[in-house]
Amino acid sequence: MTGEGQKQTSENVLSIKDLSVNFNTEDGFIQALRRVSIDIPPRQIVGLVGESGCGKSTIINSILKLLSNNAEITNGSIHLQNEDILMMTPTQLRAIRGKRVSVIFQDPMTSLNPALSIARQMTDIQYRDQINKSTKRQRAIDMLTRVGIPDAQKRLKSYPHQFSGGMRQRIAIAMALLMKPDLLIADEPTTALDATLQIQIIELLKVLQKEFRCSVLFVSHHLGLVADFCDQVVVMYAGEVVESGDVRDIFHRAAHPYTKRLLECDPARIKTKTRILPTIPGNIPDLVNLSNDCIFKERCHIKDDKCPLTIAPLRELTPGHFVQCHLSQAGESQ
Amino acid sequence: MNEVNTKPLKERSATRNLVSHLMKDRLAIIGLILVILVTSSAILAPMIVPHNPNKINVRNRLKGPSVENWLGTDQLGRDVFSRVIVGSRIALQVALVSIAIAGSCGLLLGMMAGYGSKKLDGILIILFDTIRSFPTIMFALAVVTLVGPSLNTIILVVIVTSIPVYGRIVRTQTQALKHNEFILAEKAMGASKLRILGVHILPNVIGPLLIIASMDIPVVVTIEAGLSFLGLGVRPPTASWGSILNDGYAFIRNTPWLVIAGGAPLILTTLGFTFFGEALRDVFDPKLRQEVL
Fold it and tell me: Is A2-230 assigned to CATH 3.10.150.10?
């Protein structure tokens, strides 16, 4: 297992290629994801940014293959260290979930089973390991201590409702890292927490990511946290990746008009006092009846008549910095 | 202030919490006493009956309460007190056996309906509704006509008519739970269907089910008494509260203690288990406290 892992260190931990997902609804096919490609190199933290409904959760569910019944993957592939997830049998899928890919969910209030003690939940997820119960318990205690739960030995027999939100998220992180996964998916892990806790949890994730040498897919609305935490950033809009690249490329040399506007809307960037927070005017396009051209054209502030009525090509501006726009060139966004 | 007490607050265990809550509730105490009384008399029946409950002594028939026969004798001269004690055995036997079996079946089918495919859910719901559409007594009459009256017939009728009740409760609970994030989290951790149902859903649905089941004990006790009263339950000479009532019913004008002897334990048991069940429900689900049954 380890020998295989070392051989693949140069390979991407996760590689999503041209992924398209449709949802079959009464109103027609919702094209939730279109030609999405994301690469997650080993030991890198990749941020996934975009507004609500842009397909971030669909990507996570596709990676785990936990899409709802009406979803259909129409195109593309997802490779986890050279193994195609989409071709796996349910048994193979269960073997990778939790062991090689694990998830921290958004709301720690609902992501733990209220009827079971922490001890029970943390020993139970180690069901794959043929070790005795006290070893499993000890592992759980070590892991809880590692994520900063004081007096873990004693707290182990407590139930989720006896912990605060921040503590619960620490427990969720402990559970996700217990099996030492290669890829940790953090689905807005700090959205439900207050600002001080957010920083604490992110700092904790940073330290643990280095220690456990795993890759992280960090999904967030919070641009400040993404800039602080991630190595690479993928910006999504309405089911498409519009820009991706190194964190400095995205935050200092944003090329896509959506990324630029998104950065302007970050409340942390506002210098002068105002009651009116900046917004991007307009709405996201109807994902059922999509026209076959630039998805951002209706809200774009730099578009002109020369924009061709075709889907914008994904262009590589500088090595590793991709943008899907007819016009944009790299430049300072401010 | 010489010394600050740094001893941490003692965490109350769930059992202690339950006991302290029950002690505050007067009806719960009454209920508990009645439940203990009935249960212990059922368990210890062979040891505490002063007379053989089925021994006929015609010369001593329809005697009023006395030191020898605490609740008098019936039309065949049998000691009514002994019959009432033995009757508690029948009552609880029917209630516990049928509720245990119906509860387990309901739990299993309910979880299958709630978590399984839509098709399976549809089939089970139609089945549940079909059974529930018969009134219990009508259903009992039909079954008795087919297989003949006996204790097992009553148990069978109660099981069949109770499974849909438990099944529906468990199904609804399971459906509400399965879209919870922690179930999704478990799936993401690689848990199989069986593991999710057994480890994660079961502990969440079993509590409400146990409360409903405990509240059902008096209902089943009444059903058994009712069927035995109608002559559809236990066969003579076995004593059941229903058959004691029926025996006394013919002589209600002259010897009212027979009806009282059959009716009082029925009322007390029903009240006891209901008070106790309500207290249990209050402890586990304070939200329901204000609701009328």
Answer: no
